[in-house]
Write a structure and sequence with these properties.
The protein has one domain: 3-Layer(aba) Sandwich (Trna Endonuclease, Chain: A, domain 1). Helices cover 44% and strands 18% of the residues. It contains 6 helices and 4 strands; from the N terminus they run H-H-H-E-H-E-E-H-E-H. Helix 3 (30-42) crosses helix 6. The protein is globular, with a radius of gyration of 20 Å.
């Protein structure tokens, strides 16, 4: 005799649905959208793909620890944060670098603390984080050279560590 599955609403606490939900607007701000278009032209699309709004905890994680409380505290520090863009290898989508587009919000005190945390954890994990100032327009060739230099450096490091 097949067991009947509970109604979907039985699986979700009613308090969660009480307020209701709505669809958000665009994933990217106008500045991020402008940068994204140039970024797509600047990468070698035969080797890399760009993903946007990737959760930090989906790319980096705290080192394993016997102290579960300490591990959870470190995980919680990054679980609600995201990278603006992540460059991945095209074949298996392994992240190779992240990009933060620094607009005026990055001058706020709480945002500076967040940026500092991201820089530290990226350094600890040897995961490149490129910080690019937001601007009105971007030159594809300049971004292409910057990315090529960074990605070549990453590729060289990965070859020497193999």
């Amino acid at each position: 005799m097949a067991q009947e599955l509970p109604e979907e609403t039985d699986l979700v606490p009613s308090a969660t649905l009480g307020l209701g939900y709505r669809k958000c607007g665009p994933l990217f701000t106008p500045a991020e959208r402008s940068f994204y278009a140039v970024l797509l032209k600047a990468i070698d699309s035969d080797q890399h793909q760009v993903l946007g709004k990737v959760r930090v905890a989906d790319v980096l994680e705290p080192q394993p620890s016997r102290n579960r409380s300490q591990w959870h505290k470190a995980f919680n520090a990054i679980s609600a944060k995201h990278f603006d863009f992540v460059i991945c290898k095209i074949d298996d989508l392994t992240p190779v670098a992240a990009i933060e587009l620094d607009d005026n919000s990055h001058k706020q005190k709480n945002r500076k603390k967040r940026d500092e945390l991201l820089m530290k954890i990226c350094q600890q994990s040897a995961f490149p984080l490129l910080r690019i100032p937001a601007q009105y327009a971007y030159k594809t060739d300049v971004l292409k050279m910057m990315l090529a230099k960074e990605l070549a450096s990453i590729e060289m490091k990965s070859r020497t560590s193999d």
